[in-house]
Amino acid sequence: MKKLLKHIVYAASLLMFATQASAWVSKQFVPSNVSKITVEINDQANDGCWTNIGEVKRYAEDKLELAGHKVLREKFVGYDDRHYELYITVIANRHETKCYGSYDFNISKQITDNKVGGIFSAGGFNGNFTGYENINQHILTKIGDLMKEVEDPQW
Questions:
Q1: Distance, CA of 61 to CA of 70 (rounded, Å)
Q2: Quick one: which of 44, 52, 69, 141 could link to 91 by a disulfide (CB 3.0–4.6 Å)?
């Protein structure tokens, strides 16, 4: 009962605070300013809500390459001040037959200024969802929306 109540409260909060977000990418995020980019997946989806994780990663990598970026398909080790990462995070749970949760896509890099480290964000997209059997197609569509901005940055 406690778990059910937790799911209901979470789903209600998603509906109350849901926003119509749009993808954004800095105008300076162009291949000549980026040495390489990697795609990292943070899968926090449960109960079969998100099952095409590898397809989403490959799709994002392919779209980045088509936009002219050098994609590093293996894990990057070290530091390069022009190396960016696209973090794809999906959090999802199932209540009865439908999935609800959120997604966050962030294009960022590590920076150091006067020995103080931080993260610089060059683009992103996030939002909430509810009522899906699974979110496979939904996440592919949202990655596609972000990639349209990567191809033609407006910010």
A1: 9
A2: 44
- d(CA 92, CA 90) in angstroms, rounded, equals 6
Which residues, including other chains, have CB under 8 Å from residue 116's CB and lie 6 or more apart?
Answer: none
Q: Of 54, 151, 143, 43, nearest to 101 (Cα)?
A: 43
Q: Give the residue-averaged pLDDT of 102-113.
A: 94
The confidence score (pLDDT) of residue 77 equals 77
What is d(CA 100, CA 93) in angstroms, rounded to the nearest whole number?
6
Q: What letters, b where the CB count within 10 A reaches 16 and e where it falls short, cover 51-86? A: eeeeebbebbbebbeebebebbeeeeeeeeeebbbb
Average pLDDT over residues 80-99: 95
pTM attached to this predicted model: 0.85
Instruction: Considering only CA atoms, give the Rg of the chain.
Output: 17
- What are the structural domain ranges in the chain? 2-151
Phi and psi (nearest 5°) for 82? -115, 15
The residues, ordered by sequence, that sit 6+ positions from 32 with a Cβ below 8 Å of its Cβ are none
> What is the pLDDT, as a whole number, of residue 78?
74
